[in-house]
Amino acid sequence: MIPPVRPIELADIEAARERIAGTVLRTPLVKLDERIWLKLENLQPTNAYKIRGGANAVAALSDEARAKGVWTISAGNAGQGVAYAARAFGIPCTVVAIETAPQTKLDRMRTLGATIVPVSYDRAWVAAETHEFPGLDATFVHPFDNHDFIAGHGTMGLEIVEDCPDVRTVICAIGGGGLITGVGSAVKAKKPDAIVLGAEPETAAPYELSRREGGPRKYENWQASFVDGAGGKSVTERMWQRMQPVVDGSITVTLDQTREAMRLIAEKSRTIAEGAGALALAAALTGEAGEGPIVCVVSGGNIDLDKFAELVA
């Protein structure tokens, strides 16, 4: 039985912060220029923000549910987050992994003890929408449509407002929608006048399409790209419900703008951002996000090094 959608309350996020305090880093907020700041989630132990949601979701399970082991769906970052948390509890983890995920992500999930079940992108999306996969009897931890997973991501929003009290705009990449829902819920609770924007690549921008047409839509022109950690094929009805109260708009960027943002993050912060991790900065640099302070969430840095070098050369 899939539980009904409900708002992510501030109390949920504060409880998540207590649960994951020993697992998740409070990542730095680094000034890029006079109006833009970078929230470096690529410095987490798994090099991506998903550890926040994964750690909270696994910790919040009942002893009985956790004892069955856990499984999730992932292009790499969610799988690492859930596997990391499962290893801490000493329970098995299975990841239904998109077979085109970067080898770096697949290798790291295995290193964390996860069993990998490779599937196509379309098959993974069916599992995400139905919340089930044949042959897996463990407890399912959804990589974005899960209340506790999203509340975990909200802890990042608390840190942003605490470290940049005068923030005017926060930008997050949109894939499934869990990141922006969590961060947006925290930011809006603490600073209601702040603007929360999504960022998507031009090759996969279902949220912007959904906003234009007034409801969840499938992006018919979807194309695979190096931005593998964001930009889904559609917005689900449940995630549309979650995002509507806390997201003010979205910005679509080109792949060239994303590559330039990856290069700039490396130059200015001396850290590596994967394609999805650079979307927020690419969006800020368009000028469409308004005046600063703008906080861009650098959501992850899990990319094969040779691919990174090729993209930013």
What would you note in describing this structure?
This protein has 2 domains: 10-48 and 147-312, 3-Layer(aba) Sandwich (Rossmann fold), CATH 3.40.50; 52-140, Rossmann fold, CATH 3.40.50.1100. It starts with 9 loop residues before the first helix and ends with a helix. By secondary structure, it is of the alpha/beta class. It has helices spanning 10-20, 50-60, 63-67, 77-89, 103-111, 121-130, 147-163, 178-190, 206-213, 237-243, 255-269, 275-285, 305-312; strands spanning 29-31, 36-40, 70-74, 93-98, 115-119, 139-140, 169-173, 195-201, 249-253, 294-298. β3, α4 (77-89) and β4 (93-98) form a beta-alpha-beta unit. The protein has a 6-stranded mixed beta sheet with strand order 1-2-10-7-8-9. Strands 5-4-3-6 form a 4-stranded parallel beta sheet. 44% of the residues lie in helices and 15% in strands. α11 (255-269) packs across α12 (275-285). It is globular and about 50 Å long. The model has no long low-confidence stretch (mean pLDDT 95).
Keywords for this entry:
313 residues; alpha/beta; Rossmann fold; four-stranded parallel beta sheet; 13 helices; 15% strand; globular
Task: Please render the helix and strand layout as text.
Blueprint: H1 10-20, E1 29-31, E2 36-40, H2 50-60, H3 63-67, E3 70-74, H4 77-89, E4 93-98, H5 103-111, E5 115-119, H6 121-130, E6 139-140, H7 147-163, E7 169-173, H8 178-190, E8 195-201, H9 206-213, H10 237-243, E9 249-253, H11 255-269, H12 275-285, E10 294-298, H13 305-312
Parallel strand pairs: 2-10, 3-4, 3-6, 4-5, 7-8, 7-10, 8-9
Antiparallel strand pairs: 1-2
Helix pairs in contact: 1-2, 1-7, 2-4, 2-7, 7-8, 11-12
